[in-house]
Amino acid sequence: MSTTFTLDTSTSRATPVAAPMKRLTVPAVRRRKAEIAGGTGEPLVMLTAYTVRTAQLLDPHCDLLLVGDSLGQVVYGLPSTVPVTLEMMAAHGAAVVRGSYHAVVVIDMPFGSYEASPEQAFGSAARLLKETGAAAVKMEGGAAMAPTVAFLTERGIPVMGHVGLTPQAVNMLGGYGARGRAPEEAAKIVDDAQAIARAGAFSLVVEGVVEPVALTITRSIDCPTIGIGASAQCDGQVLVAEDMLGMFERVPRFVKRFDDLGARIGAAAQTYAADVRSRAFPGPEQVYAPKA
Questions:
Q1: What is the pLDDT of residue 21?
Q2: What is the mean pLDDT of residues 47-53?
Q3: Whose CA is closest to 161, among 133, 183, 194?
Q4: Are the C-beta atoms of 134 and 93 separated by less than 8 Å?
Q5: Cα distances (angstroms) measured from residue 216 to each of 163, 180, 205, 208, 237
Q6: From CA 62, how far away is CA 42, in angstroms rounded?
Q7: What is the DSSP track for 57-69?
Q8: Which positions ≥6 away from 186 have C-beta within 8 Å?
Q9: Residues carrying an active site annotation
Q10: Residues 36-57: what's their mean pLDDT?
Q11: Cα 34 to Cα 40: distance, rounded to the nearest angstrom
Q12: How far is CA 1 from CA 23, 98, 99, 101, in A?
């Protein structure tokens, strides 16, 4: 049983209505690798979502919705993803699950919630899946995290890996620049990806790497790669939804703006403010007349 949505005409807001609906599954996502190779599958589509309404709008078009720890910056205005907590991820993850019925919902494991030991990771992941109803978790890190990936997958928790530019390690990396330019670093990223895939990850985000590294990884592992600042030849793509919608002035190199929603929201707010100040709003159609 999943959820679709109808409009409550008294409030004009979406209200969940139970209806039988088959959601995509983790095994179906994993199979996409072979389907793409065989010419019968399309690249995977993933976007971030942090709220019910955003999930409702994106879900029909996506194979996966990522409740990314990028919400720390996008929603909370934090300087990085490092301060994000399990409580934040659980609250937003539950909202996105409630707002979707089609996509596989994946939740980021925040910094400090999984690195200490496989047992710590299992506890954090189990909490997130229990409290949200999501299908999988995502963990950053390379070969050092492979035993943790294996520990979780062997115990029934699907894991999406994440290599290359790993934002939780921004303090070690010294910034958000592209990775893999030096041959030694490129080889390390490829080794990391292969280790995470062998450990049982059902898919792998490859972020912010030079394109030859992304191509080597995609061709050498048996689970789908999902690129962000990597290559169009990855098995799928992900972007922060607010980036591709044009909600921020800064546009990273790897982002294509598919709309300029920020400017349109600003213009709408300007028009609203002008109508309020001129008393043009509310008009007769927005106020309640006494009953006759």
A1: 57
A2: 97
A3: 194
A4: yes
A5: 13, 12, 14, 14, 16
A6: 12
A7: HHGGG-SEEEE-T
A8: 180, 209, 210, 212, 213
A9: 207
A10: 97
A11: 9
A12: 9, 12, 14, 9
CA distance 37 to 31: 10
Mean pLDDT of 78-105: 96
Judged by DSSP in three states, 204 sits in strand
Which amino acid is located at 71 in the chain?
L
Counting every residue written for the chain, the total comes to 292
Look at the block and give the residue holding tokens 């041959």: 183
Q: What is the DSSP string of 256-286?
A: PPS--HHHHHHHHHHHHHHHHHTT-SS-GGG
Q: Which domains does the chain have, with CATH numbers?
A: 2-263 (3.20.20.60)
Burial class (CB in 10 A: 0-12, 13-18, 19+), 223: buried
User: 90 pLDDT exceeds 80?
Assistant: yes
3-state SS assignment for residue 23 = coil
Helix axes 118-132, 86-98, angle to 10 degrees: 40
3 state SS of 136? strand
- Select from 218, 100, 104, 86 the least CA-distant residue to 160: 104
DSSP string, 148-194: HHHHHHHTT--EEEEEES-GGGHHHHTSS--B--SHHHHHHHHHHHH
